[in-house]
Specification:
Helices cover about 35% and strands about 25% of the residues. The protein has about 400 residues and is of the alpha+beta class. Bound molecules: guanosine-5'-diphosphate (GDP) and manganese (II) ion. Manganese (II) ion (MN) binds next to loops.
């Protein structure tokens, strides 16, 4: 589950991580009230208005703008709220902005320069350990830094038996070139950040930039927080942080049916049992000259009801030009699945794209006969190669 910037920051702050202070708003009036409140609390008279969508690179897309008066806060918020924000991380149509975060300006001039750092906490899957990844080159595309100046990216792995040590926190601050107050602040920041990551069962924290202010405070100016979905059962209070408006409506519906569905932008829908077979099926579609319109694993129970729900979900996509069903009947018998397909087909009534069904495994021959004799516009095959050939045929 991904959080909005403002939610992530509040969560971090509850673990003692210093953040750029802000208040979320849904209307220009709320935005002005938020700016006034921040002025009372922090004395700031400049604010940044930040679009709250689940995508990075908002600054580049015009979703982060500095405002130097309350009037400007109002007009900038009015511009950003409701806009379709396009960033390097969104699709071409962008994402609708429903909320803005009004934040204090923290790039104020002072004794020393401000500096932007990059910091993330994530699982290193090859060692099975959490690690802190950080760089002096913050505020910009970390992918670009990784490509052009990889020596400026550091990692620090955490031994699960020992936890994050004071030495490691100091090493991070040292590698970032800090001294004095900023050095001490950074060690505290790193410790609090890692504690938050650990306690919230997150799978990713990405703070870009971590800012050193001109008066040597270290704070999170941005936050990308991903909570591990598998841990949500023990964080019941996080449920309300989910913003379904940020998710694909078809994926939400599929989730409600217990279908493992990911929308893709190809033209061949696929319905498969088992994630591995679903991946292989997507490869087959590609090799046949098509592009998968989705990933869909119906799980072990490919009964008529699930098959019907799956078809309905696939058919919502107007790009779909053909559907490939690929079921391996191990525990579930192919003839039962075939009957399910025939029933689902009849129930839906208007499936007007070619349907290719490949059933292999227990009672495969019987299943093929069932489909062939149903009189429906369904091509049934047993071999995977035949399925691929059929896909190529209907696309051409
Ligand atoms: P992103 O573009 O989605 O990653 O959004 P960020 O929250 O990282 O903000 C983008 C950029 O806006 C930052 O890298 C900063 O350069 C700038 N920014 C953020 N907060 C402030 C602020 O308080 N004052 C000023 N002047 N710039 C800010
Ligand atoms: Mn950022």
């Amino acid at each position: 589950m991904n959080l909005h910037e403002y939610q992530g920051k509040e969560l971090l702050n509850s673990f003692g991580v210093r953040i750029q202070r802000g208040i979320v708003a849904s209307t220009p009036e709320e935005a002005v009230a938020a700016a006034e409140k921040l002025n009372e609390e922090t004395g700031t008279s400049w604010w940044v208005v930040k679009a709250q969508v689940h995508a990075g690179g908002r600054g580049k897309g015009g979703g982060v703008r500095l405002s130097k008066s309350l009037d400007e806060v109002r007009s900038v918020s009015d511009d950003i709220l409701g806009m379709q924000l396009v960033t390097p991380q969104t699709s071409a149509e962008g994402k609708t902005v429903h909320q803005v975060l009004i934040a204090e300006d923290v790039y104020y001039p002072g004794e020393s320069e401000t500096s932007e750092f990059y910091m993330s906490v994530l699982l290193n899957r090859s060692t099975g350990r959490n690690m802190i990844m950080y760089s002096s080159e913050g505020g910009m595309d970390i992918e670009l830094v990784a490509e052009e100046t990889p020596h400026l990216i550091f990692t620090e792995e955490i031994d699960p038996k020992v936890g994050l040590t004071g030495f490691q926190c100091r090493k991070v601050a040292f590698n970032l070139g800090l001294t004095g107050t900023a050095f001490k602040e950074m060690t505290k920041f790193v410790y609090a950040l890692y504690t938050a990551y650990d306690k919230t069962d997150s799978s990713l924290f990405e703070i870009n930039p971590v800012l050193k202010t001109s008066d040597d405070k270290i704070m999170a100016v941005d936050s990308k927080v991903t909570i591990d979905d598998n841990s949500l059962f023990r964080h019941k209070d996080y449920v309300e942080l989910r913003d379904k408006r940020e998710e694909d409506p078809i994926e939400i519906e599929a989730g409600e049916y217990g279908l493992n569905f990911v929308k893709l932008d190809g033209n061949v829908g696929c319905l498969v049992n088992g994630a591995g077979l679903a991946m292989a099926t997507m490869d087959i579609i590609k090799m046949a000259g098509g592009n998968p319109a989705n990933f869909l694993d119906v799980g072990g129970t490919a009964d008529a009801k699930r098959v019907e729900q799956a078809f309905r979900i696939i058919l919502k996509d107007p790009e779909v030009k053909a559907i490939l069903v690929n079921i391996f009947g191990g525990i579930v018998r192919c003839d039962r699945v075939a009957q399910g397909i025939v029933d689902a087909y009849k129930n839906i009534g208007d499936i007007n794209v070619p349907l290719i069904v490949r059933l292999q495994g227990t009672n495969a021959e019987e299943a093929k006969r069932l489909i062939d004799e149903s009189g429906l516009q369904v091509e049934s095959v047993i071999l995977l190669q035949e399925a691929a050939d059929k896909v190529a045929e209907v696309l051409s």
